[in-house]
Design goal:
mainly alpha; 80% helix
Length: 434
């Protein structure tokens, strides 16, 4: 019954369900991080279980969306939308935490945690009706299932030119990766000798999200109340501003949906890193002054607000998009996992060490964040080529060694020519039978 219903989901319907499920999953991700970061009375096993679940979500969702895209211009906005929900989930969690901190009983932490079940049930129920990605099916040798999924996504028959072009492009890359004599091994993460620069691509997936955390966003989110208290504001004002700032952070992610394909991944990452460095330097300067005034207090507040909004625009959605996008097909899961590992490892480092540092060295910890923002500029400039406007298969060519690029392009042309020939034969047979 379920399989019959799944086969009837095609075209825009499958894309809407996919986007809805991914968005709700990332909303759960953000909400979970916000609740478990703000509610302090939960048992350790709840944090552990939440961490495992969020780890699965953060690895799989960007990869699934990237591989289910039929047009290169869809990938950026799709992931950007889910990241709007990611940060919105954290903002919702902080407002709920803000309301429940007025209670002094077990309800204050039980309801915020139990509320996550609603998001999980919605996302999980929708995923029951969605297929796996055609790239995964082809990579595992399930050609019939891959054909069926491509037909569902395009809402077309198997001999449709769009279906055949994408199928031939995917199969070409799979064949080339399988025949590649200089395949990937773990040593390539240190010194990359592979023809497709796989080690470099996985390193970038890890580093871009590790640097994202080193720039201080989670520290500013988790300890926003402490930060505003250190600026010199009252406890209530600090709590209120913390909730407002996280809402502003969520609003900052919205413009990316319409601009990620227009301005490009690299440009947005680069110029937002420049602005973030300026904001962090201004913030450090204002809170480091020996004699703070009302003007310096609110200048610091303004700087950290702008920092959060710009970070939401430039360094949330694109970081989650870029890693799975640049990873080769057979190791896309490894690229996504490396990114999630970098995200959560350095999230732990910055939040754990940052909390201790805020108590011991105070405002000086933000110098570390300012330097990380500065380093991010050079990382993007030297390590992150532009991927906007390219299919996932074209990105393979972008990273390949020069002597290999021509081979890949030639094989893609041959496969596309064969696909057109097969289509012509199928059309002729159909006419004759008619």
């Amino acid at each position: 019954m379920l399989s019959k219903f799944k086969s009837k989901i095609r075209g825009k319907t499958i894309k809407r369900l996919l986007s809805t499920s991914c968005a709700i999953s990332f909303l759960l991700y953000g909400y979970d991080a916000g609740v478990l970061g703000g509610v302090q009375e939960t048992e350790p096993f709840l944090h552990a279980m939440g961490g495992i679940g969020i780890g699965f979500i953060s690895c799989s969702i960007p990869t699934y969306q990237a591989e289910m895209s039929t047009k290169h211009e869809e990938r950026g906005p799709d992931v950007a939308v889910t990241c709007v929900f990611l940060v919105a989930g954290a903002a919702v969690a902080y407002w709920i935490d803000f309301g429940f901190t007025r209670m002094d009983n077990q309800i204050s932490w039980r309801i915020p945690i139990a509320f996550q079940v609603v998001f999980a049930l919605c996302a999980g129920s929708i995923m029951l009706f969605l297929p796996d990605t055609p790239r995964w099916y082809y990579a595992k040798g399930y050609e019939a299932e891959g054909d069926k999924t491509l037909c569902q996504i395009f809402d077309a028959e198997i001999h449709d030119e769009r279906v055949q072009n994408m199928k031939s492009s995917i199969l070409t890359n799979i064949a080339f990766e399988s025949q590649n004599k200089k395949g990937f091994n773990l040593l390539d993460l240190i010194w990359d000798r592979s023809d497709l620069r796989v080690g470099r691509r996985i390193r970038i997936s890890f580093l871009i999200l590790a640097i994202q955390q080193m720039m201080g966003i989670n520290l500013s989110v988790y300890y926003s109340t402490v930060i505003f208290a250190q600026v010199g504001l009252s406890p209530f004002t600090a709590q209120l501003l913390a909730a407002i700032m996280n809402t502003a952070f969520a609003l900052g992610t919205v413009p990316l949906v319409w601009t990620v394909e227009k301005f490009g991944r690299r440009s947005i990452l680069l110029w937002s890193a420049v602005v973030l460095t300026g904001c962090m330097v201004l913030f450090v300067t204002m809170i480091g002054l020996p004699n703070r005034t009302l003007a310096t207090q609110w200048t610091a507040v303004g700087a950290i607000f702008v920092y959060n909004m710009v970070f939401g625009y430039g360094w949330i959605g694109i970081c989650w998009l870029y890693g799975p996008e640049i990873a080769p097909l057979k190791l896309r899961h490894a690229g996504a996992a490396a990114g999630a590992f970098g995200e959560w490892l350095f999230s732990f480092v910055t939040v754990f060490a940052g909390g201790i540092a805020l108590q011991n060295v105070g405002w000086k910890i933000w110098i570390w964040m300012a330097l990380s923002c500065f380093v991010a500029i050079f990382f993007v400039y030297f390590m992150c080529p532009e991927t906007t406007g390219k299919t996932l298969e074209e990105i393979d060519v972008l990273f390949a060694k020069e002597e290999i690029k021509h081979t890949i392009l030639a094989e893609q042309l041959v496969m596309q020519s064969n696909a057109r020939t097969e289509k012509g034969e199928m059309s002729s047979t159909h006419i004759e039978n008619s």
